[in-house]
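ok so for the tutorial part 2 we go from a plain amino acid sequence to predicted structure tokens. step 1 is just haveing the sequence, like this:
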Amino acid sequence: MPKIRVIDRHGELHELEAPVGWSVMEAIREARLPIEAACGGCCACATCHVYVDPAWLARLEPPHADETMMLDEALQVRDESRLSCQIKITPELDGLTVTLAPEF
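step 2 — the prediction. this is what the tokens look like for a chain of 104 residues:
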């Protein structure tokens, strides 16, 4: 099972097992880390906003128009901003590192 690395808002690193096919958001919620994810992964809010480690950005599918539109409403958006509900876990993402963005 792939593992992802999540840095929380206090700078603490958490290594999580993430089943293939789940979203990064689902893995973060399952680990009970503080992510709101108000829409439950429907790409209808920006409360699962994360910063993807720049070394991993090129390995991800590019964001869809809906995700880009939702990120326009997020706080403190950066070039490496993504919605964690839109990043699907694959074996190739083993080791992916994301940082939780500030709360909405």
